[in-house]
Amino acid sequence: MFLHFRKQFPQLDPYWDKYLPLQQRLEVPAKTILLKEGQVSQNYISIEQGCVRAYFDKDGDEKTIQFFFENAGFSLFDSFVNEVPSQFTIETIEPSVVYLLARAHVLLLIDDLSQEPSFMQMILKITAERHRRFNNELISFIRDTPEERYLRLLSERPHIIRRVPQHYIASYLGVSTVHLSRIKGKLARGADHF
Amino acid sequence: MFLHFRKQFPQLDPYWDKYLPLQQRLEVPAKTILLKEGQVSQNYISIEQGCVRAYFDKDGDEKTIQFFFENAGFSLFDSFVNEVPSQFTIETIEPSVVYLLARAHVLLLIDDLSQEPSFMQMILKITAERHRRFNNELISFIRDTPEERYLRLLSERPHIIRRVPQHYIASYLGVSTVHLSRIKGKLARGADHF
DNA sequence: CTGATTTGATAACATATGTTATCGCCGACC
DNA sequence: GGTCGGCGATAACATATGTTATCAAATCAG
Questions:
Q1: How many contacts, defined by CB atoms under 8 Å, are there between A and B?
Q2: Distance between alpha carbon B107 and the CA centroid of its chain, in Å?
Q3: Which residues are within 8 A (CB) of B20 and not within 5 positions of it... i.e. 6 or more apart?
Q4: Which residues of A touch B123 (CB under 8 A)?
Q5: Alpha carbon of B21: minimum distance to chain A alpha carbons (Å)
Q6: Which nucleotide is nearest to A176 (CA to C1')?
Q7: Which is it for the CA torsion B171, B177, B178, B184, positive or negative?
Q8: Cβ of A131 and B128 within 8 Å?
Q9: CA distance A72 to A2
Q10: Å between A140 CA and nearest CA of chain B
């Protein structure tokens, strides 16, 4: 739980530890929906093993916006605390092992933490990071062609391409599966032909 | 200065007031660049009168990502404080009156403010709002066609369409000026024809 | 092992969008 | 008033991308 935070703010370890036993372990097959678009998350979810994606529905087809792997967690504080309905559906891509920490416990945890001066610091750091990530994603969508986005993904986060089925990648890049195939084909031909 | 914040956090008024006289008033014509992409902002900028846009360059053409009008301010704290180079160019669209508060003064102001408990609250609120705005923009880019984005802009922020030259709107919507004309033409024909 | 499902490639065609060029309108300026 | 430049509409053509259909390979379930 909260492994991502632990690395950066080890002084908060005792707080997490107290809540570790309260988590619920869950083994689920691929294509399990952990949280549905429009619903309020009742748990903080962290991934011990496997891989999930966040997507939303547009007239029947799914637009993937993010992938998560081992040791990632979501339901970030603000939307979680304020009970804002999720804009995204969270679904496993592979058979996965996840841990759930009930909302009530998370609220207690936050209560504990708010005594700690570095807590605010952590929140600010996390929100700033997340903002930067989404901002870069937006800029990339505006600036780059699908082919450029594919190449960028290939060079910056190749593990995603290796691990995630291609139609999810296509959805993430904002193109049809057919077009992503075309892009790959074109790149392959361009690369070795001459 | 900081009018946007004042409405929401009136208890901080005395802090702003102290720095009001230190601002520099600036009258500038249209198409004046206030901050260049890649440079570190040396001032907190607020707009008293007029209208500006933020854009970045992609292979010679400009991608507009946001518009600002009277009583808005930018150079939000994190990027400002940490001296991160701006990803965007800030340019006036109309002849405008802007106020600049030098970076050094802003740092002093933040120092003052950090005594105040509601300051953190304000930062969190502002960053959350900004994150929501960018997030919605990203989702709209992924989900909506250019025509849908135009209609959304028309219904949600018609003042922008009324006030801003159309080629900037096209750039903001992510299409060519020609295509935006086509969209408008199609909508107009569709509306009154039958 | 075998049939069913998933995944990815490819072709053919349809639609959306970009590019370039041209024209007309209108407001700024002399 | 006349000229010039910025702005927006439109047409013609080029390119990018979506859609549907088909096939083959890989994977999974019984």
A1: 57
A2: 21
A3: B1
A4: 124
A5: 30
A6: D18
A7: positive
A8: no
A9: 8
A10: 10
Write out chain A's pLDDT in tens, 194 residues: 666 777 788 888 888 888 999 999 999 988 999 989 888 888 999 999 999 999 999 888 899 999 999 877 776 666 677 788 888 999 999 999 999 999 999 889 989 988 888 888 888 888 888 888 999 999 999 999 999 999 999 999 999 999 999 999 999 999 999 999 999 999 987 654 44
Q: Which amino acid is at B142?
A: I
Answer whether residue B153 shows pLDDT above 90: yes
Cβ neighbours of residue A94 under 8 Å, at least 6 residues apart? A30, A50, A51, A163
- CB within 8 Å of A72: residues ≥ 6 apart: A4, A46, A47
Residue type, B20: L
As a rounded value in angstroms, the CA-to-C1' distance for B189 and D11 is: 17
- Region B96-116: mean pLDDT is 90
A179 touches strand C (CB under 7 A): no
Which regions of chain A does DSSP assign to beta strands (E)?
24-28, 33-35, 43-49, 52-58, 61-68, 89-92, 96-102
- Judging by beta carbons within 10 Å of its beta carbon (0-12, 13-18, 19+), is residue A34 exposed, middle or buried? buried
Residue pair B63/B170 in contact by the 8 Å Cβ criterion: no
Q: List the nucleotides on chain D closer than 7 A to a protein CB.
A: 6-12, 16-21
Residues 92-151 of B with CB under 7 A from strand C: 145-147
Instruction: Please give the domain boundaries of chain A with CATH numbers for all domains.
Output: 3-116 (2.60.120.10)
Mutate to test the interface with A, among B131, B132, B137 (most CBs of A within 10 A): B131
Instruction: Tell me the percentage of chain B whose pLDDT exceeds 70.
Output: 93
Report the Cα–Cα distance between both ends of chain B, in Å, rounded.
50
Q: Which of A172, A149, A156, A134 is nearest to B130 (CA)?
A: A134
Order of strands across the sheet that contains A96-102:
A24-28, A96-102, A43-49
Answer whether A63 sits within 8 Å of B131, measured CB to CB. no
CA B53-B63-A182 angle, to 5 degrees, is 160
Residues of B in contact with A130 (CB under 8 A): 131
**What sign results for the dihedral spanned by CA atoms B136, B141, B147, B150?**
positive
